[in-house]
Specification:
By secondary structure, this protein is an alpha/beta fold. Helices cover about 50% and strands about 15% of the residues. The structure holds one RNA strand.
Amino acid sequence: MKIYNTLIREKQEFVPLVEGEVRIYTCGPTVYNYFHIGNARPFITFDTLRRYLEYKNYKVIYVQNFTDIDDKMINQANAEGITVREMADRYIREYYIDADNLNIKRSTFQPRATDCIVDILDMINVLVNKGYAYVAEDGVYFSVEKFETYGKLSNFNLDELEAGASERVCINESKINRADFALWKFKKEGEPSWESPWGDGRPGWHIECSAMSRKYLGDTIDIHCGGQDLIFPHHENEIAQSEATTGKPFVNYWMHNGFININNQKMSKSSGNFFTIRDIVQKYSYEVIRFFILSSHYRSPINFSEDLLAASQVALERIRNCVNNNTFIIDNRKKTGFEENIIANLDIQELKEAIAKAKTEFIASMDDDLNTADAMAALFDLVRVANIASTKDNVPSSILNEASTIIIVLFGVLGIKIIQEETIPSEVIALVVDRVNAKNEKNFALADEIRKKIGDFGFTVSDTPAGPKISKI
RNA sequence: GGCACCAUAGCCAAGUGGUAAGGCAGAGGUCUGCAAAACCUUUAUCCUCCAGUUCAAAUCUGGAUGGUGCCUCCA
């Protein structure tokens, strides 16, 4: 499999540290709100990476953290008159509701920053002892000048950063270099704090991820994921802290997803132009959201709009119709005792070839830097052939079933559920029987009236050569 | 100012040297009591523009134009 590695800015053959195992760390949410569609992109993208690696029989150790202490959280908790911990608990619960519904697998480990204070302090201690960190007025800082390769991920050098920063206000005069960042922030009035050798306080944002990654995955990991906006300073700083601490490479492959835009502008909590998952599912299902995200390459920007969501919904229905239709035909054949013509023929051959091709192309696309859009196209090709085959009596049920299975399994690798649980109420079944009778009596006005009633239950009935087919709206 | 990225049909989108996938929308048709679904046909002589390299470029090189992001919390 090839992965685009931000560190070298090109695609690279993926070779894990330990054969058959993959260690992945991905930066999780700061839990002070419901998460929005922009936050959902990395969760979904890298969950798909994980599922694909597992599909390829790798053992994946996946860590996604919760940032449960920072300025925004403190401010909001104070405003609401609750503790930071209470607010974090609440939005972690809410996170899981959305994440579970989006079919994002639970991480192998999902640590909270405030539960790893000991590990964070250990790391800071090493950095101070090694001379990479120093104590200033308001906290302990990492000295970027001490870390020679600072800037290797983002392609910034310290002089350029100085030039950029010159237009901005220099907030803290006690720092040696403007780019120095806080490892530990000393306590201010009204803030939660923990004891440390340098004074009570709380961890800086960057050190959390370094410490949690190291705690659960070791000094060097295979893949570190996140949004492109985290490249600098967050990931750059993680590299500096981790490599300064251990003297070993921190991450072999850096993967970064593109943004979701609104009217070609970045969507973000701070700009206020965001849609939460909770907002969107008022109108579109979780599967549609996931389908929408995966229908572009993960590194490309996506422009979000309701029209695109609507298009994704219809496209997903096309897949579901194919599978449901196959199921209907197969069940119907069993009921009616349909005798299958098992003589080999061209239609069977075509479908068999389409199944094999879909699988091969799906894997080839996913192997090419997780090209989910191309992988989905391969499955749409199979859907077309399967739809044709399903109209022919000379294609055995077993092969129709095989087509359905491969579609379900491979969409499952993308984390998209094709089969929807649905129980048809007995009232609906009775109405369908009534409608068949009405139709037999050529009483079409009554038949249409009954169809409307069925619609009131949230179901549709369509007439097929094999009889009425009921499906949920 | 520095560093990155992007530009493909009405819309979305794949394609990194061999002559434009796929989805949505549209048009016509088949099937149907009517629908729905499905199928068939159709929808970019061409990939923002201009040069260049090559037998061959949407794909490589240089330039232009337009757009976005990062350099500050941010997925």
